[in-house]
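Dear colleague,

As promised, here are the two records you asked about, laid out in our usual form so they can be pasted straight into your sheet.

NAME FIELD: protein one
SEQUENCE, THEN STRUCTURE:
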Amino acid sequence: MVAPIKHFAAVIAASVLGFVVLLTWATPASAAAVGLTAGCTLTSATAQCNFPVLSASYNAEIHYVTVQCSTTSTTAYNLKEVEVAAIPPQASGDVDYEMAGNRASVAGVANVGAIVDIYVKANTTSAIDIDFSVVPTGTTTCTASLTATY
């Protein structure tokens, strides 16, 4: 009776060892975090903030996005729509993710921030598109920031 128990214990030990080795090979690399800020180019009633490639080798995930615009004008304006344009891992073209709309300016400044979960294909760029409801006169600047992991 002792021989079958030793055989059974050996089979379990070999199975556990094989599973541990398999898990060791299948463990993903730890995620790296990145934070980026981009100035935006204004053209009439829109602005675009272009970001560089988040990761050349891995798909990335954008977690948080902020946008702030300011103007020297006394004209009140709204950020009518703010979208993140990114290429998802399984796609070949940009998909726009609306993150906020209709944010009013106060004393010439309008801002928005949002928690998002946007997956971005490796070796592609992303952008933030801003639509204004009223085009501010004077000098207007916008800055966008994002945090992501890959």
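NAME FIELD: protein two
SEQUENCE, THEN STRUCTURE:
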Amino acid sequence: MKSWVYGISLALYAGLAVPAAAQTGADPLRLALECTQASELTFRFTMQNVSTVPTAAVIGVILGNDRKYLPGNLELTVRRAGMADTNLSYVDLSVAVVGGRLDRWLIALPADASYSVAVPAKNFRLGATLRQEPFVAPADLQLRLTTQENGRHNPDVQGLSLIDVWVGTLTSAWLRFPGQCSRTP
């Protein structure tokens, strides 16, 4: 009985996979950036599947059995008049040490579906110094998200390794800060 259920589970996971041929040509995903300035400046990024087939992507890691979700490879470019562009990386300093399991943050999107994540602006930091961007002066902002390979999974979620994922870098359109930020989330 167990092997029969396992076989059905594998078939279902395989049915969710995106054929490799569907991932050629234009990117199947689109990235959008929004911001809100309620009590704390927050950025929200949204991935939308703009293809006609299901698409999946690994966007980071999950810590401690769903206790903490961390976007990976998330970068923000800050462009101000008369200054060189500044590139900031997303770094969550609340996670200094990991003492448990790490799972891939895999997002499966049917055609025309979208998924969004809110991240605090204070977690975008300048390179090795980890200096925080004050976000006080007007600027144009652009977000880049680089998705990851599916890779190996923990033994209890091995079926996820059967899902084909799109790997690449998504770039949002430019957002004018603070002009295009709303005051409410």
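A couple of things worth noting about protein two: The longest strand covers residues 29-37. The CA atoms of residues 125 and 132 lie 5 Å apart.

Best,
R.
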